[in-house]
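note to self — DONT lose this again. spent like an hour looking for the file last time. sequence + predicted structure for the chain T wanted, 417 res
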Amino acid sequence: MYQSTNFQGGRPVNASKLKTIILASSATIMAASLMVFPKESFEASLRGLTMWWEVVFPSLLPFFIVSEFLIGFGVVSFLGTLLEPLMRPLFRVPGVGGFVWAMGLASGYPAGAKLTARLRQENKLTAIEAERLVSFTNSSNPLFIFGAIAVGFFHNPALGIVLALSHYLGNFCVGLVMRFHGSKKEETTQKDKDNKLSLKTALHMLHQERLKDGRPIGKILGDAVQSSVSTLLMIGGFIILFSVLNRLLSLLDITTLLSLFVSVILAFFHMPNELSLPLISGIFEITLGGQMASQTGAATLFQQVIITSFILAFSGFSVQAQVASILAETDIRFKPFFIARLFHGLFAAFFTVILWKPLYVDQQLVEKGTNTVPVFLQGETYSVFHNMWQLLLTYGQLVTLIALMIYVVLTFKKLSP
């Protein structure tokens, strides 16, 4: 009798009631804030919509559609068999994780989560393997790091290589750390895995997977577009929501209050208090945090880049909410992913400190002293990313509009008898 009255679903009743009160109060405060600050909320909403409309949607859509094709045609199973000897010893995930890792790196978050959830739904991953995989396959794409952050915010293309290497090396280290996640549960099941490379087996898996899917090309294309656009609409909602939330927290001075606690941590690392506000903003939303960090005059460039690197790696509550929504459709837990983001932020900041002198300071001295620039720091290399970013900003909204029109047509066609 005592347990039934004081516990619900394994949780104390008081804790459950407290959670209900907190959630209800938060929603009420947010609703009231929207009414008090309608103009500011609208502008923040418009800012989030613009980012999704011009950048996020057109940059992610092709990768999502191509991924569905590769899964349907059996290419993922083919690559998984070939990559098994690499991915299993390093990260303790199946070879298909190599495909997710590559696509996540190229397209940016939350592509890794979407593909991991998709493979889990098809039982190509166990729940533990999926939790390991999703922890290190969600990263920022190079276009955003070089085009938006290095060139757009800092107006310094040479910073791109430092930020990118720190980001991806940090993600690699997260994968190595998370390989120990759930090790006791899989001690007996994963011991006898065959990790031998076999092209014949890979080709057989490719053929069998295509036959197993059985859908014609037109059907796969239609399903790919609908699934991809549906996911991107959800992502857009989160981007707009957190853009508004971030603005409201600033207007209510909650961000300023939180920054007081963060300033204590920054002081421990001998960083100026002025970076606390960009860090708090970046914890909620990457783009705003990166922009604010680049405009903090009281900090040195080195300190600005460290904070920006942490923000990029932590990926912000906005991206994490997108991932949580995607993982909610499976039995993959969100908690390991959140812990991995903390590790990623620390690793990325650490690598920024390590790489700063050899990849930025020394190279700047070489450039000034000899009027030459190393191959990987040549302006042409960065101009490619900058031009691609500008191209995306110019024509991205057109791609989004066309894709949404196709999505509407396919949806009506599917609903019509």
